[in-house]
Amino acid sequence: MKEISSSFKAMLEESAPHSLIISGRCSIHRAPERLHKCTERSQYKPETISIGPFHHQDQSLKAREILKLSYANSLLIRTANRKLKKEEEGAKFFHTELDSSGALVTNKEWFAVLGECISSVTNMETKIRQCYSEPIAMDSREFVKMMVIDGLFIIELLVKVKVSEQHGIAREHRDPICRNNWLLSGVIQDLILLENQLPMFVLECLFKIVAPADESLKMLALHLFDKILHLLPAGKTLDLEQSKSAAHLLDLLGMLLQTQPRNEEKEIPRDPESLQSEAPSSSLSWIRLRRTPDSVDEKETKCSYFPSEYIPSASELQRAGVTFKKGSKEVSFMDVKFGMDGIFEMSPIHIHDDSELIFRNLIACEQSYSTRDNVTSYAVLMDSLIDSAEDVKILRKQGIIIVHNLGCDEDVAKIFNKLRFHTGAADNYSKLNKEVMKYYRQSWHRWQASLKREYFGNPWTIVSLLAAVLLILLTIVSTVSGILQVVYNE
Question: What is the pTM of this model?
Answer without folding.
Answer: 0.77
